[in-house]
Amino acid sequence: MTVSGESTEAIRIIMMSSGDIAKRNESDRQEWTHRGVKGIVVSPRGHEITLKTGGMQGEAQATVTVTAKTGIKRYAPDSVKLSEAQTAKLQEITAGDQLRARGVKSEDGLHVDAEELVFGTFVVKGGTITGDESGDQRDHIEGSRREEAISGQAHQRFAIEANAADATHDGQGCAGRA
Question: Domain containing 106 — which CATH number?
Answer without folding.
Answer: 2.40.50
